[in-house]
Design goal:
about 60 residues, 3 helices
């Protein structure tokens, strides 16, 4: 995805609908949804990113 395309998106473009994407991933591609507590490796690797995003979100609000 290019920046040019990203900045033009709004709520009317269904190509980027989260519910539609979830359905496609889980039903069409048969990707299993797991929760963070199921995999300690995933949790371990995502925690720093979540902390960083939380920091910037609270700092800019």
């Amino acid at each position: 995805m290019t920046v040019e395309l990203y900045v033009t998106l709004d709520g009317t473009d269904n190509r980027f609908d989260g519910c539609r994407a979830h359905k496609h991933l889980t039903q069409s591609l048969v990707i299993n949804l797991i929760t963070m507590h199921v995999s300690n490796v995933i949790t371990f690797r995502w925690k720093p990113l979540v902390r960083l995003l939380t920091f910037f979100a609270t700092r800019n609000s």
